[in-house]
Design goal:
The protein is of the alpha+beta class. It contains 23 helices and 15 strands. The chain has four domains: 220 residues, Multidrug efflux transporter AcrB transmembrane domain (Multidrug efflux transporter AcrB transmembrane fold), CATH 1.20.1640.10; 98 residues, Alpha-Beta Plaits, CATH 3.30.70.1430; 231 residues, Multidrug efflux transporter AcrB transmembrane fold (Up-down Bundle), CATH 1.20.1640; 86 residues, Alpha-Beta Plaits, CATH 3.30.70.1320.
Length: 764
């Protein structure tokens, strides 16, 4: 029987002696050797390392307090026609760039806004128009914005500042000024920027931590071992978040960027620390001295952490290829948070392991002693999967494809007031406007006519208005509004359908398709904008970018995994499993958030189209996490294979050691992501669900069921690599084989006593 190998430590009787510190390997992977040295430095200078990280945390926190700026809650696509028109309007209509909203007044059903009610509405409008920060509030009776039955009146409100700078104090003042109208039985509802945002929920941020603590405690059976990953993850994600908040003082960032960085940084920060701590505990119980074990854990497990982290970082940075600023900022911010998590894992974690000493090895012990010979749930599962590999592959694939089937009907869009909860004021305003003026009045289009020459734009704008009236699906066209210079006009077009419908999208496309034929005779440009057009452009741009982005990261995965595992089929199975994961995750998303099946269980107030940016975000994040699981599981299998185990034995033994870590990691990530389902924001809620469900599918159905079954089915062919390709590829020893080989050549140090709690034997 070959010597048992645990964590890169070999000997005739693991645990019977502590090995003297071996010399650094002269051959092998440079990264493993560098990380080994870094681990030794972190343990020996643990006070300096801890102090350095605390100082960094303090500096970024101070920057967040002193330098932070507002976040941006709007979406736009630079280069899109709607964005070009907005830029033009900001130059030609500088007084019309403030935030805007609407106030809807409604009499009780069957009654009208006449007499005292009409007077109350006019008084409320006048009071609101005199408030500081309010530029104008339109009188619905003067502007003839009263429904044909006289029951509903619509008032437009314009503020002095932009949406991002508008304060809740100003919004509240508007409500206080209008509130007296309600005393006469007038219903008042608000839409657009006049709506006071709901208070931010903190449950999503905090619910994952106690659940993660319970999972870690059950996994390790030790408060020290369970608490260390939580502490390092909080420090890492705290530095990442405060750094992002500091950057808001210098660049524009979307309001969802910190939340995405938080959910991802917290999850992977815990996972990376768990992976290193788990390897360290195994090595301590095998007889390695604490300092040497921590260094070797960084050189072996840390190598896999660096590789896995690099895949996540590259995938998130790959969002830049979409060329959408808010996605680029989101990807880079999240990637920076992951980079901090990796640095924390390979420096602060070993430093804290140095403080913990041998106490970290206390708790549950499945590596040595009596429990090592007892079959675990993981070993029973992998035995079943490898024995029944053909049925497992077939059944698992069918289940995943069935989950993915709803993706075929996925519809992308951006949220509007129609997707708000029925009890929310903006949803009530939407319904009242639809009932009184038609659904299109909730999202009118703005057609901008810009004159080329020096003449006035009035005649050209009138001609464009006539063309617009002749189009299908147009409810009404307003008279052109000219700027002071008389060279630009804006025409408001009310569609017959709501802002998020395919009919309104067809109308936008019709205007843009026919506008080039109008422009030569008018000597003017015709552009379509407005929030509805912006949402359509965002959805179209992100939809077109989805396949190229997926192709880029799939190609990246094939290259990186081929280099890491020196195999053709391992990368193919990893990528194939990832595609099944994505399909199943999006299928669940469509079923619940778009079709509304079981939506009440997840607090989905109103089923609607899938938010356009979600698929790209989810692909980037799930790709990185799926590759984490692949690396953590298959690297241990390859390590066993390199030590002479058969193809089946390598799968079962590697799975036995990796399954506990991956299971704990997956449960932690699911708990972190599930916490965000409780958030009020529809984007964060749907992202949290998609990631949580995707992790469940990828970890338990793909990585721990389908992949080992396929590896057992293919046997030795799984590790095949053409010789010419083997010569071309760089050698990346993510398992730290060179370090393990150096250790196995050492003579046990007989003067060093055995660690308490270790066993005299280990089970293969």
């Amino acid at each position: 029987m070959r010597p048992e190998v645990l964590g890169g430590v070999a000997g005739d009787q693991p645990g019977s002696a502590v090995f003297a510190k071996p010399p650094l390997p002269t051959q092998g992977n440079a990264m493993a050797s560098l990380l080994y040295r870094l681990g030794h430095f972190a343990v020996r200078r643990r006070r300096l390392v801890l102090l350095t990280w605390l100082l960094i945390f303090g500096a970024t926190t101070l920057g967040a307090v002193l330098l932070s700026g507002p976040t941006n809650g709007s979406f736009s696509i630079p280069g899109a026609e709607s964005h070009q028109a907005i830029t033009l309007l900001s130059e030609r209509f500088p007084d019309a760039n403030g935030a805007s909203g609407r106030v809807v007044f409604a009499a009780p059903p069957g009654q009208t806004l006449e007499g005292e009610r009409a007077q109350a509405v006019e008084t409320a409008v006048h009071r609101a128009s005199t408030l500081p920060g309010v530029r104008e509030v339109s009188d619905p009776f003067t502007d003839k914005a009263v429904s044909p039955d006289g029951r509903i009146a619509l008032s437009q409100i314009t503020f002095d500042t932009s949406s991002d700078e508008l304060t809740d104090t100003t919004r509240a003042a508007v409500r206080d000024a209008i509130a007296p109208a309600e005393r006469l039985g007038v219903e008042v509802e608000y839409g657009g920027d006049a709506v006071i945002p709901p208070a931010e929920s903190s449950l999503g941020e905090i619910i994952g931590l106690p659940i993660a603590a319970v999972v870690l405690l059950l996994t390790f059976g030790s408060l020290v071992a369970a608490g260390l990953p939580l502490l390092t993850a909080v420090i890492g994600v705290g530095i990442g978040l405060t750094g992002i908040i500091t950057m808001t003082g210098f660049i524009d960032l979307d309001s969802s960027v910190p939340t995405v960085a938080l959910m991802l940084g917290l999850a992977v920060g815990i996972d990376y620390a768990v992976f290193i701590v788990s390897r360290h505990r195994s090595q301590l119980r095998a007889g390695l001295a604490p300092e040497e074990s921590a260094a070797r854990a960084v050189g072996t497990a840390g190598s896999a952490v660096v590789f896995a982290g690099a895949t996540v970082i590259i995938a998130l940075a790959g969002l830049s290829v979409v060329r959408v600023p808010f996605l680029t900022a989101m990807g880079l911010a999240a990637a920076a948070t992951i980079a901090v998590a990796v640095l924390v894992a390979i420096t602060l974690v070993p430093a804290l392991l140095g403080f913990a000493g041998a106490r970290i090895a206390k708790g549950k012990n499945f590596d040595t002693g009596p429990r090592a010979a007892t079959p675990t749930q993981g070993s029973r599962w992998v035995d079943f999967v490898t024995r029944r590999r053909v049925p497992v592959v077939v059944v698992t694939t069918i289940v995943l494809l069935a989950c993915a089937a709803p993706v075929l009907s996925m519809r992308l869009g951006m949220p509007d007031d129609s997707s708000a909860a029925p009890q929310e004021t903006n949803r009530k305003a939407y319904d009242l406007v639809s009932a009184g003026f038609g659904p299109g009045s909730n999202g009118p289009l703005e057609v901008v006519v810009n004159r080329h020459g020096t003449g006035g734009v009035r005649s050209a704008a009138s001609a464009v208005a006539q063309h617009l009236q002749n189009l299908d699906h147009v409810a009404s066209v307003s008279a052109p509004v000219l700027n002071e210079a008389g060279d630009t006009a804006v025409i408001s077009v009310v569609p017959t359908s709501g802002p998020s419908t395919s009919t309104t999208k067809s109308l936008v496309n019709d205007v843009r398709r026919q506008a080039p034929a109008w422009e030569p005779g008018l000597d003017a440009d015709v552009l379509v904008t407005g929030q509805t057009a912006v949402n359509i452009d965002v959805a179209d741009t992100l939809g077109r970018a989805l396949i190229p982005f997926l192709a880029i990261i799939v190609g990246l995965a094939l290259i990186l995994l081929t280099i890491a595992f020196r195999s053709i089929l391992v990368p193919l199975t990893a990528v194939g499993g990832f595609l099944l994961t994505i399909g199943a995750a999006f299928g669940g998303l469509v079923t619940i958030f778009q079709k509304g099946v079981g939506s009440d269980l997840f607090g989905v107030a109103q089923p609607s189209a899938v938010i356009s940016l979600l698929p790209i975000i989810a692909i980037g994040i799930l790709f990185g996490l799926a590759m984490d699981y692949q690396v953590f599981l298959v690297s241990r299998m390859r390590e066993e294979r390199s030590h002479g185990a058969s193809a089946i034995a390598a799968v079962t033994t590697g799975f036995r050691y990796g399954a506990r870590v991956v299971t704990a990691a997956a449960l932690i990530m699911v708990s972190v992501f599930s916490g965000f389902i409780l958030e009020h924001d529809a984007i964060i809620k749907s992202v949290g669900f998609t990631l949580a469900f995707g992790i469940l599918v990828d970890a338990f159905l793909v990585r721990m069921t389908l992949v080992p079954a396929l590896m057992a089915l293919l046997g030795d062919r799984m590790w095949w690599l053409p010789r010419w390709l083997d010569r071309l590829l760089p050698h990346v020893d993510i398992e730290g084989e060179a370090l393990g080989a150096a250790t196995s050549q050492q003579v046990p140090h007989e003067d060093t006593p055995q660690l308490a709690g270790t066993s005299d034997s280990a089970s293969s």
